[in-house]
Design goal:
The protein has 400 residues and is mainly β. Helix content is 4%, strand content 41%. The strands form 6 sheets. The chain has a 6-stranded mixed beta sheet with strand order 1-25-24-23-22-29.
C-alpha cells in the first residue's frame, strides 16, 4: 500500500503518557465550537485498563484559536474508584457541540462493568452517563445517568433486548439539515451485543433519545465501534469498525421528521474492493464529509474522509478519501464501500484510535493516539491540522 507521509512538525502532544509507572491516557474525542475554539478530551486511566475495570477520569484541553494554541490540562470528571459503584469510572467520551448555542454534550461509559464480559447483561448493564457544558468546557454540569433511557429503547426488539452497549467514542454527529425539536438532530452510533450496532438520535441535544427506525433495526450485525455521518440528501451513513476495514450502511427515511425508515444491506470496505483497508487490525476511526473544490476544474464537491490504522496491526494511522457522487440518491452501501483513494498516512508509528473535526478555514483538526508506551496501556494523544490539499495530494482544496 503506497501512502504519502506527513512531514514532522505541526503536531501538538496534548496529553503525554509516561512510562509504566505513570497513569496512561487513551481515547481521543474532539469538538469544534461555533466560535472556532476546540475542546479535546481523553481518558485518564488510573486502573490502566479500559473503562469498566476501575477508576477512569476524563481530562481536557481547550484551544481558543482553532488549534493554534492550547490551554493547560483540566479535569472534566473524576471516577470515585469505589468498587462496584456507578461512579467508579467515566470513560470512552463521545462529544458534540451544538452548532447554534455552542452547548456541549458528552456521553460516557460509567461504572465498573465491562462491555464484553458475560456478567454484563440487561440486569447488570454497561452503564451510560452524560455531562454538559455551556461555557466551552470551562465548567461542567453534574453527571446524569442515561442507562435505562437508552437500553429500554430496545427491550421490545423482536431479536431480543440489548444486553450491553456503549456509544462509539470520538465525535457524535449533528445533522446539517434536520431540526425537528429544540436543536438540530444528533445521531449516536452504538456498539451493542447481541446483534451488533444500533443508532439512536435526539432532537433535544441528548435530553431524550429514540431508536433510529425503531427497536428492530440492525444496521451491522458484526459491527464493532461505529460512527455516523449524513449524506447530502439527509440519509444517515454508518461506518463501523471491523477486522481488515470498515462496514458501511445507509439509513433510508420514509419520514425524516419522525425518524422512520430502514437500513440497507451492510457492505464491507477493504483492500479487495479498493475500500478502506486496515491491514491486520480492527480499530476505531472517524467518518467525516466536508465541502471542497476539485482543483482540476474548480467544481464544488463533497469529500468523504475515513481514518483507520493502515497497519499492519495498530500502526500508521491514515486517512482515505473519496468524492461524493453527484447522483446522491444512487449511493448504496455497496457503492460507497468501494473505490476509495490511496490513503494519506498521518503517522509512521504505532497508532490507534483517531477522530477529526472540520475547522473554520476548511482544514481538518485531526486528533489521534500515537506511540504506544512501555506500559502497553496508553498512548500520546496528538493533535495536528491537515489541509484537504495535503490529504488528497493536491486534487482537492477548501471552498473559499
Amino acid at each position: 500500500m503506497s501512502c504519502s507521509v506527513k512531514p514532522e512538525g505541526g503536531r501538538t502532544v496534548l496529553f503525554e503518557s509516561g512510562n509504566k509507572d505513570s497513569i496512561p491516557y487513551r481515547i481521543p474525542a474532539i469538538a469544534a465550537l461555533p466560535d472556532g475554539s476546540l475542546l479535546a478530551l481523553t481518558d485518564y486511566r488510573h486502573c490502566r485498563l479500559d473503562i469498566g475495570f476501575g477508576r477512569v477520569d476524563i481530562h481536557a484541553r481547550r484551544s481558543p484559536d482553532s488549534g493554534r494554541s492550547w490551554g493547560g490540562e483540566t479535569v472534566v470528571i473524576e471516577g470515585s474508584g469505589t468498587e462496584g459503584a456507578t461512579d467508579c469510572g467515566f470513560g470512552d467520551p463521545a462529544i458534540v457541540a451544538d452548532r447554534e448555542s455552542g452547548e456541549i454534550l458528552v456521553m460516557l461509559v460509567c461504572g465498573q462493568t465491562v462491555y464484553w464480559k458475560a456478567e454484563t447483561n440487561r440486569e447488570n448493564p454497561n452503564r451510560i452517563a452524560c455531562i454538559r457544558s455551556s461555557d466551552g468546557g470551562k465548567t461542567w454540569s453534574d453527571w446524569e445517568e442515561k442507562t435505562e433511557d437508552i437500553y429500554s429503547l430496545f427491550d421490545e426488539c423482536r431479536d431480543g433486548c440489548v444486553e450491553s452497549c456503549f456509544i462509539g467514542s470520538g465525535r457524535i454527529f449533528q445533522s446539517r439539515q434536520v431540526k425537528a425539536g429544540s436543536h438540530y438532530r444528533i445521531y449516536a452510533a452504538m456498539c451493542a451485543r447481541p446483534n451488533g450496532n444500533r443508532v439512536i438520535y435526539s432532537d433535544d441535544l441528548g435530553q431524550t433519545w429514540k431508536a433510529l427506525g425503531g427497536a428492530d433495526q440492525l444496521p451491522a450485525l458484526y459491527g464493532n465501534e461505529p460512527k455516523c455521518e449524513e449524506l447530502p440528501d439527509g440519509r444517515v451513513l454508518l461506518s463501523s469498525r471491523a477486522e481488515g476495514g470498515r462496514i458501511f450502511n445507509i439509513f433510508d427515511f420514509t419520514d425524516i421528521v419522525s425518524g422512520e425508515g430502514t437500513w440497507g444491506k451492510p457492505a464491507f470496505s477493504c483492500a479487495e474492493n479498493n475500500g478502506c483497508a486496515a491491514l491486520e487490525n480492527s480499530c476505531n476511526g472517524e467518518i467525516l464529509i466536508i465541502p471542497g473544490v476539485r482543483n482540476a476544474d474548480k467544481t464544488e464537491v463533497l469529500i468523504a474522509l475515513q481514518s483507520v490504522p493502515l497497519g499492519p496491526g495498530r500502526t500508521n494511522v491514515g486517512i482515505y478519501y473519496r468524492e461524493i457522487p453527484e447522483d446522491v440518491q444512487g449511493i448504496t452501501p455497496k457503492s460507497f464501500a468501494s473505490g476509495w483513494s490511496t490513503p494519506y498516512q498521518v503517522s509512521a508509528d504505532e497508532s490507534a484510535y483517531s477522530t477529526m473535526v472540520p475547522l473554520k478555514n476548511g482544514s481538518i483538526g485531526f486528533y489521534f493516539e500515537e506511540t504506544l508506551k512501555d506500559s502497553g496501556t496508553g498512548y500520546d494523544m496528538v493533535y495536528t491540522e491537515l489541509s484537504l490539499e495535503t490529504i488528497t495530494g493536491g486534487l482537492y482544496g477548501p471552498r473559499r
